[in-house]
Write a structure and sequence with these properties.
Elements (H helix, E strand, L loop, with lengths): L32 H27 L7 H26 L37 H11 L17 H14 L1 H10 L23 H17 L18 H10 L43 H6 L3 H27 L5 H21 L5 E2 L1 H4 L2 H4 L4 H7 L6 E2 L7 H18 L1
Antiparallel strand pairs: 1-2
Helix pairs in contact: 1-2, 1-4, 2-6, 2-7, 3-7, 4-6, 9-10
Length: about 425
């Protein structure tokens, strides 16, 4: 198995786990160094998969200085750090993080996020809404807040996935140390930006450093431990990602009740009774169907103009992903300029989305035909779009580099079958 392969672990032998293409269940005893490398590549994909979802909601805000905008942006910035931590750990173990090949699909076939995480969820690219925030809370939820139905998978939370990774790193501690000392071809990116790097010359124990990196990801996402949804003193007791999205969902700031009581699904509202957070003005974008609006564009008389704007956004997104990949996998002296190029493309994406894509209306006649155009997806779209108001296109986040690579692989397979 190569260091670049994506291997995701699931539950114990014989566990009933819904898995997708390329996913396989691996008993804990067989989770070796190759498995860790594969799991870290999956972690890169998992962290990235949240970003288009959160970005689409953030871009949909009409004015970009609302508290709501800053809240979502703060989570996005930390998700970028989490992806970088996973990529640095993979690079330290001799792997080469594949970023330009990531092509998350929404809605994902079979549901869930990469690695078989939370298969009960069907993520959709959509505007900010109470319904979309429910999905964000599901993504960031600590296990204790899940229903019995939501627990019925190997990885019902992102935290479960990282628990498996933490256990594998600990069980393979000596192999991890040797691999880090041996180094690899990929770069360590961003040590001067405040998140961990794992170089072979670092005197600290790499196993402890790896476990600390995993803690950063899980503490910021779910909370420092099972009794809090704050990230802890290291992070100035900032709210976890779950807490920040819950503030937007309840439209109130977090304020622990007095007298204290456990936070559960039933008591959660009691923890969000602080200052009111007014609901922002949101552009009513049409949630993105699996075909990336192909059926809508075909019936829109102004479809070619909308297509140009959507393509321009996707080109910027592709350029960002390619630049990030170059930061880790290009010449060492170019990782900093490559990272800067990625940041420039992120700004392009914001501008192209807010001022171009989301100014393209979807004709009312086409909106009225959505149930015919998307019989299997109509409920998903209607739940996340107000179909009684004017509707606009939203960003699709199609990574052309990944799509082109998939097309080449399909062509090779087809030719091999001849």
């Amino acid at each position: 198995m190569s260091p670049r392969s994506v291997v995701t672990a699931a539950g114990p032998p014989g566990a009933a786990v819904r898995t997708g293409p390329g996913i396989r269940t691996t008993p804990p005893a067989l989770r070796d160094l190759d498995w860790i490398r594969g799991a870290l590549q999956t972690a890169v994909a998992l962290e990235h998969a949240t970003m288009p979802l959160y970005s689409a909601a953030m871009y949909s805000l009409e004015v970009q200085n609302y508290p709501s905008y800053n809240t979502i942006r703060s989570v996005l910035m930390e998700e970028m750090v989490h992806m970088a931590i996973a990529a640095n750990m993979l690079a330290a173990l001799g792997g080469s993080p594949d970023i330009k090949g990531l092509g998350p699909r929404y809605p994902a076939p079979g549901g869930g996020l990469p690695g078989g995480v939370m298969p009960d969820l069907t993520p959709v690219l959509a505007r900010l809404s109470a319904r979309q925030l429910d999905d964000f809370l599901r993504i960031e939820a600590p296990a204790r807040l899940l229903s019995e139905r939501e627990r019925r998978s190997a990885y019902p939370t992102i935290g479960h996935f990282y628990d498996a990774l933490r256990q594998a790193v600990t069980a393979n501690a000596d192999r991890v140390r040797r691999a880090v000392r041996a180094g690899g071809p990929a770069n360590q990116v961003g040590g001067n930006l405040g998140y961990p790097t794992f170089g072979p010359d670092d005197p600290a124990d790499p196993v402890e450093r790896f476990l600390h990196g995993i803690d950063i990801i899980t503490h910021q996402g779910e909370g420092e431990h099972e009794h809090t949804i704050e990230a802890g003193g290291t992070y100035q007791h900032e709210g976890s990602h779950y807490a920040r999205f819950a503030e937007l969902r309840h439209r109130r700031r977090y304020r622990a009740p007095d007298p204290a009581r456990p936070l559960t699904r039933d008591t959660e509202a009691d923890f969000f009774r602080g200052e009111e957070i007014p609901w922002p003005v949101v552009i009513n974008t049409l949630a993105v169907p699996a075909d990336g609006y192909a059926a809508v564009l075909a019936e829109d008389p102004d479809g070619p103009a909308a297509q140009l704007e959507l393509d321009a956004f996707d080109a910027a997104y592709t350029a960002m992903m390619t630049a990030l990949d170059r930061a880790w996998n290009g010449p060492a002296e170019t990782w900093w300029p490559a990272l800067g190029a990625a940041v420039e493309r992120m700004n392009d994406m914001r501008v192209l989305s807010c001022f171009n894509v989301m100014r393209q209306p979807v004709p009312e006649a086409v909106v009225e035909r959505l149930e015919i155009l998307y019989p299997g997806e109509h409920k998903l779209l209607a739940d996340r779009t107000d179909l009684g108001r004017p509707v606009f296109y939203g960003p699709r986040f199609q990574n052309n580099a990944a799509r082109n690579n998939a097309a080449r692989n399909n062509a090779v397979r087809n030719n091999s079958a001849l």
